[in-house]
Amino acid sequence: MIKTKAVPMFHVPDVLATVEWYQNMGFTVDDTYGNDSDGLSFAVLSFGESQVMFSQGGSPSTGRRREVDLYVYTDGIDQLFEQLKERVDVIEEPHDTFYGMREFIFRDLNRFWITFAQASVFVRLMHYVQENNVEEVQKILVQEKLKPETLTSAMAACNSAEIEGVLKSAGAIPPAKVDPGKLKSYAGRYRKDSLELKVTFDNQSLFAAPGLQKPLRLVALSETSFTPMYLDDFGKITFNTEDGKITSCTLYEGSHAIHVQRIADE
Question: In the chain, what percentage of residues exceed pLDDT 70?
């Protein structure tokens, strides 16, 4: 039975040179095909369970970035970077992203971008918290230095008194307790220029959805300030009041702040 899957294909100027380069990066050659001339015209390589195809006919590029990127999921990002950094054109060194991945990026010999990525410490912590895996949570807390806000989000997501105690011992600040009526008063639509934020109240919790994105559950840091539960280092949202009414909210990301006005339903 054929396993359904999608495999990216890159058209490159020199298939043989590309195959050799990727072998040097740790890829395995699964299959190759020749043509009437010397060299290769097509090849299939794999990295773990993923595959990539290379075919002749591509054009050289002097641009900073090509039309397609290769995104590779793996483990041991930092160790892998140390193995490869002297042999590649590094674009970004290992770093944690707001969407929960730890990545590094470099270019191959044809200037295609390759990103190696694994789940960040925060994502792994949240996973084990929700699985009530005390041992793995403790292991992460011993190995990693996490911010109090990160631990607070983990505490808000857990349903285990034992894990809650472990997180408190590591420095977690319990989420602020906000009256459900107060939370509900924040629900509405907020807009500035092309940015629209929809805030909703559901199941005694507050959610925010920028544009058409999936709603993010918010954790209360205070009565007026919140942070997304499942996104680390993504800043916070503060709701602003004038004359007893919620008139706007401010989105903070690092030192950057955007003031977003509340709008009436149309």
Answer: 96
Given strand 69-73, what is the order of strands in its sheet?
69-73, 113-119, 101-107, 89-96
How many CB atoms are located within 10 Å of the residue 81 CB? 17
What gap in Å lies between CA 178 and CA 249, rounded to an integer? 17
The answer, as to whether pTM is greater than 0.85, is no
Domains of the chain (ranges; CATH) run: 121-169 (no CATH), 180-263 (2.40.128.50)
Token pair, residue 42, equals 């097509």
Cα gap 34→46, rounded to integer Å? 19
* Integer Cα distance of 262 and 196 in angstroms: 10
d(CA 42, CA 92): 30
**H/E element, 44:** strand 40-47
Whether residue 266 is predicted with pLDDT greater than 60 in this model: the reply is no
CA distances from 186 to 156, 177, 205 (A): 19, 15, 11
Length of the chain: 266
Question: What value does the mean pLDDT take over residues 211-217?
Answer: 86
